[in-house]
Design brief:
By secondary structure, this protein is of the alpha+beta class. The chain has helices at 2-31, 34-63, 287-293, 303-306, 372-377, 381-386, 400-405; strands spanning 81-83, 116-119, 125-130, 138-143, 169-173, 182-188, 201-206, 217-219, 231-242, 245-255, 261-268, 274-276, 280-281, 295-302, 311-317, 325-329, 340-341, 348-355, 361-367, 393-398, 411-416. The strands form five sheets. A five-stranded mixed beta sheet has the order 1-21-20-19-18. Strands 9, 10, 11, 12 and 13 form a five-stranded antiparallel beta sheet that branches. A four-stranded antiparallel beta sheet has the order 5-6-7-8, with no helix packed on it.
Length: 419
């Protein structure tokens, strides 16, 4: 506040001085020759140009939220980007053409989006998605050829899947006690406009590689204790360690409409029944950053090819005023470092990460650009007013050390222009 008042007073003083200076200069201009007059005017104009620019820059920072400043406030990524979204003429008919091909999974409705997938043990890919924008019956398709085609699906799915209110997520659960793997499908019950919600999140289990599934079982609904109204449950589900060894517990993340981020721990009792711990606001010590950035839809990455002792989270910044945020935990998610901005090359939404065989990270997300390049490529006033654009679905290739050190990584791949 003191700085603000000082600048205001300085502004008034500069304006007053300007009036006096211009008055004196006008009298001198009449008395002196034109050369001296022009020289004096040049100095005065230069002085005030610099002063006014400094004042403008200050007020841009203070009043930017009122729309009085350039809304494109981010930096640009500088690593190379390979564009696979459009096939160049010179590559048509070449051996590389397949890299540009996109396969339609399902076009049975006007809006089909928000898929999640799991690799089955026979090499097939099971993909689940809602019948609509963000909510609707859980649909599914299966690919047996690495995603090149999607002909079959799981038949006779649970009746409760029809009532899903969110984008479903699906994960594989591996056990250390000899229990066969399970698949778990989770769907939140958020609050949609003009709709009631039971709250909590729904879970369905498969013990036979997705052939059959249990009916939804609800946890932490609003009619019970510790009820929550989640959004995107679970954005990530991370197997935990105790004393350096993996155990049969998994940490799930979701958020709510106030951008509080919660964690809840999944385990199973002796009878094989699911148990979820009471949801906790794990970023509470960093609430100011969490709220201002509007952190949500958080992915978690374990160090050392998924076997290390450190966790990194990367969050969507729904405010779009700063980049995606990263934070680190060395105690299995009990505490987290102060979130900081990721490089522009990683800025985006709905990050999903996996390691490549050579130890690098391959992270897909919907990109968000906020820098000068985005400003130049803004298509219309809508893009300009909101201060960001999206290149579409991209993949980032880099290392865990890049996340740790805040470096840009190696390169990006533009997979498709979808936004």
């Amino acid at each position: 506040m003191k700085k603000f008042i000082s600048v205001i007073l300085a502004t008034i003083l500069l304006m007053s001085c300007g009036i006096a200076c211009f008055s004196v200069s006008a009298e001198e201009a009449e008395a002196n020759n034109k050369e001296k007059s022009d020289s004096l005017w040049d100095k005065i104009e230069d002085f005030f140009d610099k002063a006014i620019n400094e004042i403008k820059n200050f007020f841009k920072k203070i009043f930017g939220f009122l729309g009085l400043s350039d809304r494109f406030t981010g930096s640009d990524y500088t690593i190379p980007e390979i564009d696979l979204s459009t096939l160049p003429e010179e590559l048509k008919g070449s051996k590389y053409e397949y890299l540009y091909n996109l396969t339609t999974v399902d076009n049975s409705r006007d809006y089909m989006a928000h898929p999640d997938s799991v690799l089955l043990k026979d090499g097939s890919i099971l993909t689940v998605y809602p019948a609509g924008h963000g909510k609707g019956a859980v649909l599914n398709k299966i690919s047996t050829d690495g995603g090149m085609s999607w002909g079959s699906k799981v038949e006779n799915t649970p009746a409760s899947w029809v009532n899903s209110l969110e984008t479903p997520t699906v994960y594989r659960l591996e056990f250390s006690d000899g229990t066969p793997d399970k698949l778990i499908l989770i769907s939140a019950n958020p609050k949609w406009p003009n709709m009631k919600t039971p709250g909590g999140f729904e879970c369905s289990i498969s013990c036979d590689e997705g052939k059959t599934w249990s009916e939804f079982q609800r946890f932490y609904g609003l009619d019970g204790e510790n009820g929550v109204t989640p959004i995107v449950a679970m954005a990530s589900l991370t197997r935990l360690k105790e004393n350096g060894e993996f155990v049969d517990k998994w940490m799930g993340f979701f958020h709510d409409s106030d951008f509080y981020n919660y964690k809840t721990i999944l385990s199973f009792d002796k009878e094989g029944n699911m148990q979820w711990s009471t949801p906790e606001k794990y970023l509470a010590p960093h609430r100011e950053t969490e709220k201002s950035a509007q952190m949500c839809e958080i992915e978690v990455i374990r160090s050392d090819m998924g076997k290390g002792d450190e966790l990194c989270l990367i969050a969507r910044s729904q405010s779009k005023k700063i980049n995606s945020m990263v934070s680190f935990s060395s105690d299995e998610g009990k505490t987290w470092s102060a979130p900081k901005e990721a490089p522009a090359a990683l800025n985006g939404e709905r990050h999903k990460a996996d390691y490549t065989p050579d130890g690098r990270l391959f992270i897909t997300f919907r990109s968000i650009e906020r820098g000068d390049k985005a400003k130049e490529n803004a298509k219309d006033a809508t893009d300009g007013n909101r201060g960001w654009i999206s290149e579409g679905l991209v993949a980032w290739v880099g290392t865990y050390e890049d996340l740790k050190n805040g470096t840009e990584g190696q390169y990006r791949i533009k997979i498709a222009h979808i936004y």
